[in-house]
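Lay summary. Proteins are chains of building blocks that fold into shapes, and those shapes determine what they do. In this project we predict the shape from the chain. Here is one chain we studied, written as its sequence of building blocks.
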Amino acid sequence: MTLGVAGALLGWFVYQQANDRYPVIALARAVPFGQPIELADLREASLPRGTDLSTMPWAEVDRVIGRLAATDLYAGQPLPPDAVRHAPIPEAGQAVIGIPVAPGQLPATPLEPHDEVLVIRSDDASSTVRATVLRVGDSDTSGRRTIDLLVQEGLVTSLAHAATDDRTLLVLVARR
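And here is the predicted shape, written in a compact code that computers can read:
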């Protein structure tokens, strides 16, 4: 009998532990790096207590809405606190510049937000600039698209020349 009571108590304890959960913010759909987070992007999820995941409690959902994704966020993942930017893009000392490119001036591998690229002018390889892709525009009727790049503010003049040069190439060098 004592063994039965002990087993029942152990079962009840395990059941309680399994059901001891807390509500956290999770992603209902993907949000690319640099894009604002909307309420429709989020959902409430529950995790068991004692989980080592870095998460944000659902009670803080209002603090997240309108903030920017600091990295690519994927549907279903719990939202970690460091995945939300409080500063706008660009931050002080940074700039966003659009570089129009035609097919053949960028890799066939589609560029994605947060990719790192080299911007190379074929007539002046010494002016090569490393940049982060912020947004990839849609192709126009001629196949050209504008790629928004995040760079240090001091590099804007060099990139302004690249933006007007049909010999500018974008080279994918790193994915995050």
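What the prediction tells us: The mean pLDDT is 85.
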